[in-house]
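Fold this: HTH cro/C1-type domain-containing protein
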Amino acid sequence: MTIEDRLQQLIEALDISVLEFARKLGERRGEKIYHILHGRMKPRFDTLQKILMVFPQVNGDWLLRGEGLMFRTLNPSPTAAITTEERLRNMEFLLFQLNERMALLQQTNDQLRDEVAELKERVTTKAG
């Protein structure tokens, strides 16, 4: 999953528009974010840093590398608590990632099985 995909998922999970997301980052218009989302430009370090400062609940490892959950658990307080809806989104995303990994493992397993079958056939052919 690309960083553009993760940003799109984040905006959807925050349930805000791209323009509202951009404005929270200090942008007057949403063009920069739209360009990033459509792959016309990569997010710069300062943009990623702003995202993590403006949305402290966002897991930096997830945003940068796609590792872990979208939202991190913060110290429990009324203003920083992760909502049940955010936790459900995290679980849905985690299940999505697990399904992708399972599919990749299944594909690798199938390839290995085919290679073993070919090797067995070669050994049988050479022995006979």
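Residues 84-127 form the longest helix (44 residues). The domain at 3-127 is CATH 1.10.260 (434 Repressor (Amino-terminal Domain)).
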